[in-house]
Design brief:
There is one protein chain. The protein has helices at 2-29, 34-38, 44-53, 60-72, 87-122, 127-141, 144-158, 174-200, 203-210, 215-244, 247-252, 258-267, 271-299, 301-308. It is mostly helical and 309 residues long. Helix 10 (215-244) runs antiparallel to helix 13. It is flat.
């Protein structure tokens, strides 16, 4: 198992290197330079001084190697738009809001989605099953900004229950959380239903029924245990979406989160902020995948035996 984890960690480093490399060269492939993009009608001499100060006057390959060396020291860089502001400080200051809203939405949406998926599978081909699937289909197809607009109109204009935008207390987090909860709820409902139906058709379920075991015992000790295993992978990977999937919601509800800052950095062509946040989000994603692999190995003996072989 240790060899498996070490091999996975090596793959993680390679993935992060590849993503960082692609992002770096794509950003520099955009015509123009960040200094001119941020300040219009800047004197040429002043622009050249800024370019030299940030190293943009060097060959592109050398800039890339210097940035990799900087990353190896743990330095994510500094903002071009706001001189003196470190990317690490931006992550520390803005990520808690994204983690709070996204974490609550993920936990609530996943829990409700799993319950709905189990209920739909047990009531297969009946109206509750069809109702859950219709709602899940709507939840996965309706864009996030449409759901956010509907919530704002219903709960702030028609019925002024919650504030529209801002971040001044718990009440300001209700609408963004509800908006981000729809996607996980719909996704996990469909996924859990499919997983349950697949397990219900297995031979060991028929054997358990032939032995005369009660339906409750079969569901709790045979169906649910094996149906949850595929959902563990989704749940761990969804952790990365807490930060990377909240861009639109944070912009609509004016939340001071990491996603909203990421969008503004892209608009401002703040190279080092975009690269630094990309490294952080990629790291969260690959670590989530590693965690899901370890959990599956611990919970499923078949995977452990496959790794040993």
């Amino acid at each position: 198992m240790i060899r498996f984890i070490l091999r996975r960690m090596l793959y993680m480093l390679l993935v992060m290197l590849a993503v960082t490399t692609i992002t770096f060269f794509l950003l520099h492939a955009i015509p123009g330079d960040p200094i001119t993009a941020m300040v219009q009608d800047l004197p040429e001499e002043t622009r050249q001084n800024y370019m030299a100060a940030y190293g943009f006057d060097k060959p592109l390959v050398k800039q890339y190697l210097l940035y990799l060396r900087q990353l190896l020291t743990g330095d994510l860089g500094s903002s071009l738009r706001y001189p003196g502001r470190k990317v690490a400080d931006i992550v520390a200051n803005y990520s808690p809001v994204s983690a709070l809203v996204g974490g609550i939405a993920l936990l609530a949406g996943a829990a409700l989605g799993l319950v709905c998926g189990i209920f739909a599978a047990l009531k297969r081909d009946t109206w509750p099953d069809r109702a859950v699937m219709v709602l899940a289909l709507l939840g996965t197809t309706i864009p996030t900004f449409v759901i956010a607009s509907l919530l704002q109109y219903a709960l702030t204009v028609t019925w002024p229950v919650f504030p529209t935008t801002g971040y001044k207390g718990v009440r300001y987090l209700v609408l963004p959380t509800l908006c981000m909860c729809v996607g996980p709820l719909a996704t996990y409902a469909r996924y859990m239903r499919s997983s349950m139906l697949d397990v219900m058709n297995q031979d060991y379920i028929l054997t358990a029924e032939a032995k005369g075991l009660s339906d409750r015992h079969i569901i709790l000790h045979h169906m649910l245990r094996n149906s949850f295993l595929p959902c563990i992978t989704m749940l761990c990977v969804s952790v990365a979406g807490i930060f990377s999937g909240s861009f639109i919601v944070e912009s609509i509800f004016s939340l001071p989160g990491l996603g909203r800052y990421f969008i503004s950095a892209i608009s401002d062509r703040d190279y080092f902020v975009v690269l630094g946040l990309n490294v952080v989000l990629t790291g969260i994603y690959v670590c989530s995948i590693l965690l899901s692999d370890i959990l599956l190995m611990l919970l499923d003996p078949r995977i452990r035996s496959g790794v040993k072989e």
